[in-house]
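re: the backbone from monday

yeah here it is again, tokenized this time
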């Protein structure tokens, strides 16, 4: 396994641990509306997905 593969697996593991341990609600203000009282884990998951998409597009 390459060094990049090991880093990717490590980051995936850390992300899963953070999502499993996160409790609580968050308000997400968007451009035209606000998502009220959404689980914080879903917010972090969305940020992670957006970051991965941006990283893939920049590669």
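seq for it, each position gets an aa:
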């Amino acid at each position: 396994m390459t060094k990049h593969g090991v880093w990717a697996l490590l980051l995936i593991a850390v992300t899963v641990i953070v999502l499993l341990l996160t409790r609580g609600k968050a308000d997400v203000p968007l451009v035209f509306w606000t998502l009220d009282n959404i689980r914080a884990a879903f917010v972090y998951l969305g940020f992670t997905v957006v970051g991965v998409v941006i990283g893939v597009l920049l590669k």
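The first strand starts at residue 25 and ends at 29. The two ends are 20 Å apart (CA to CA).
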